[in-house]
Amino acid sequence: MAYSFKLPDIGEGVHEGEIVQWLVKPGDLVKEDQAIVEIMTDKVTAEIPAPVSGVITELRGKAGEVITVGSVIAVFDQSGAAAAPAEVQKVESAAAPAASNAVNASAAANGNAGSVAVQERPTGQASKVLAAPATRKLARELGVDLSQVAGSGPRGRVTQADVKQGPALGAIRSAGVPPLVSGSVVSGGFRSLGERRIPFGGLRRKIAEHLVKSKHTAPHFAYVEEADMSKLVTMREELMPLAEAQGVKLSFLPFMIKAVIAGLRKYPALNSQIDEATQEQVFKNDFHMGIAVATEQGLVVPVIKFADQKSLLTLAQEIKTLAEKARAGKLSLDDMRGGTFTLTSIGSIGGLFSVPIINYPEVAIIGVNKIEKRPVVRTINGQEQIVIREMMHLSISCDHRAVDGAEAALFVKEVVQTLENPSRLLLAEGF
Would the pTM count as exceeding 0.90? Predict the structure, then answer.
């Protein structure tokens, strides 16, 4: 008995995904709940399990192809018989053009431009064009027929740049102009070392699409303030041995989260979102804190749910767990969704301050920067004196549709006052 498996709904607001890789092949006998394909969406990369046990007779779609939720991606033979040769041959023949394209791409990379064949897509086949969701949306907005645009991305993917440039230039780029060869002579007698190209895809492309959407949708503005962290540095040093005794490494981030939540309680507009469909500003009563984590593949933002109700030690442990999962590429869809406000820290790297991009659809993001000893002026016993203090800059970016400049400044002021007087945290919920 044949069973057609359709791509399931893998997350709220997810309508399509890109096939990263197949984990099985035609003829394989798989068991129910065995992972068969890795799918990347705008939100997360997830392994999709088999809904039934049986023999794979057909796989629909190749790596890099975008498929919609509800479309058939695999066919199972539940009778237990081996895959029919005709079905296997069908899949293998479908893969042949991809192999041919790979050979042509290899030839182009070696400078044999004449061996590259540019295939035109039939008119009206835009649905079969390899393009990301954001690219398809841009094409609709600009009135561009994707079937007439030659993609310059990996495996012929149409990029947003291709859509903006139009069919003519896209066709020229797809023709396989050979790259500069290392060691070639250029003007002045100098030798060029050429260039290196890698596919702009996977997580890096998803990050780019998300950031572009944020910048194009939310009118950003930034505000920077500094905080005297001296008392908090001392408090943390005192608490670290107690935390280590419980197996927890206590960083500054849990304190930052608590201070931010104190500010959000007083200025709730920064913990809101704009509902584009209903044209409403939605104020979130829960505090789900996104924590930006740098990985080898790019920046991801796992979310700590109900952060206001968790203690410093619980926050520290959860930050550690999520960061480890992020760097291992093991974050789930649930780990990544539901954030109401994001905190990004680059203090360990350095720099005075940053101007982060909002993690859309949130309306604000705060950046915490390095803590360093600096000379500052303080009034001591009625006299102004130059003293050394542990200072840090806070940078906030906001969506001006939802947050006014004065409100953002007052919010940051509230965060600074909490950081400069950390004993306030003792009154916070869940401390």
Answer: no
